[in-house]
Amino acid sequence: MARLMDRRWSSRPMALVRSGCPVLPWDPTQARLRKNSLTANSMRLWLSLSLFALACLSVPAFGQTDVNDVHVVPREVEKPPEPPKPDLVVSTSGLSAHVRPLKVDVDLVLVPVTITDPMNRLVTGLDKVNFQLFEGNATQEIRTFSSEDAPVSLGVIFDSSGSMSSKMDRAKDAVVEFFKTANPQDEFFMITFSDEPETVSDFTSSVDEIQNKLVFAVPRHRTALLDAIYMGVSKMRQAKFAKKALLIISDGGDNHSRYTEGEIKSLVKEADVMVYAIGIYDRYASAMEERLGPQLLSDITELTGGRAFTIDNPNDLGDVATKIGVELRNQYVLGYRPTKVVRDGKWRKIKVKLLPPKGLPPLRVYARTGYYAPQE
């Protein structure tokens, strides 16, 4: 190996002489030193490159940048506010049109009125000119007048307390007779009550459904009449017709309610619901609540424009129920807008005065006694 090295290096002076370059004396020791120096430099260069590559691989976060990493936040440009969109109104032709609806503030008060003669018979055939209407002491112009048979939302409140044992069958028959006068568009619900009220049938247009549920009513316990009226008035909030009425069938006063008589009277004054009642009373009632029963039902019904019928013989139940059904469907409805509208939520007293045609006997007027003004 040394011999070959000597030959390789010994040939360089000849080449350098031919090229015209100055020639230095050949020194084998210096050649070995230069060779070792080159080897050491190569090793240092290789080591530096290796360390640099290792550093790049072990710390990639300093040498790479994600394209999604945005360091400059652009200036936000405020968008102009969008104009309000008009309400969508569907026309009668089925097409949609973007137009603003016309809002009309209408304060129309409707007053159902029943007229009877001295024989307690219903009087029909009167006209608008036969009525005069007052709110407080101010005369009101009657703007709408109707005597048509409009659909009714009706609730039956049926007494199933223990004292009804001897009258239960006839009371059920009375309900059946009452429904025979129904309009096909009417809707009904039924509540029975003893210790507490219970909804046995929700709103339905099926008379058969009501009758089928009534079969299971069994007399028991005490009488929570006022609670049942409260439940009936509350349920009327779900009614779909403007004309609403409750029919109460009971044999006595209240002896097991949480609500008081005053609370129920305030409730029916606020509600736009007529209340009718059929009271089946014993002639010689021993309990105080039974003796006060007729007056209780009379006071509640008169506040709403309805009537209370008192019967001594349960055999008369069917006829009275039929009479109430006919009366409900032959009422006059007067509509007016108050001349002075004050939205204070206070009670407004109403009075209907009759101007009957000549030749008629004295007639009696049944109408709601007032209403609560709106607050908004």
Topology, please?
Layout lengths: L1 H9 L1 H8 L8 H31 L29 E3 L5 E3 L10 E8 L14 E5 L2 E3 L1 E5 L6 E7 L8 H12 L7 E7 L3 E8 L2 H8 L10 H11 L8 E7 L10 H10 L3 E7 L7 H17 L3 E4 L5 H12 L3 E5 L10 E8 L9 E4 L2 E3 L4
What this model shows, in words?
This protein has 376 residues and is an alpha/beta fold. Among the domains are: 105-147 and 330-376, no CATH class; 155-327, Rossmann fold, CATH 3.40.50.410. It is 31% helix and 23% strand. The chain has 9 helices and 16 strands. It has helices at residues 2-10, 12-19, 28-58, 168-179, 207-214, 225-235, 261-270, 288-304, 317-328; strands at residues 88-90, 96-98, 109-116, 131-135, 138-140, 142-146, 153-159, 187-193, 197-204, 244-250, 274-280, 308-311, 332-336, 347-354, 364-367, 370-372. Strands 9-8-7-10-11-12 form a 6-stranded mixed beta sheet, with helices on both faces. Helix 4 (168-179) links the parallel strand 7 (153-159) and strand 8. The chain is globular and about 140 Å long. Residues 1-24, 57-74 and 83-105 have low confidence and may be disordered.
Number of helices: 9
Stretches where pLDDT falls below 50 for ≥5 residues? 1-24, 57-74, 83-105
**Largest sheet, described in full?**
6 strands, mixed
Name the overall outline.
Answer: globular
Radius of gyration: 50 Å
The percentage helix is 25-40%
CATH class of the domain at 155-327 equals Alpha Beta
Q: Which series of helices and strands comes N to C?
A: HHHEEEEEEEHEEHHEHEHEHEEEE
Distance between the termini: 117 Å
Strand segment count: 16
Strand share of the residues? Answer: 15-25%
Structural classification: alpha/beta
> Which homologous superfamily in CATH is the superfamily of the domain at 155-327?
von Willebrand factor, type A domain
Mean of residue pLDDT values: 77
> What's the architecture of the domain at 155-327 in CATH terms?
3-Layer(aba) Sandwich
Q: If you consult CATH, what is the topology of the domain at 155-327?
A: Rossmann fold
**Strand line-up of the largest beta sheet:** 9-8-7-10-11-12
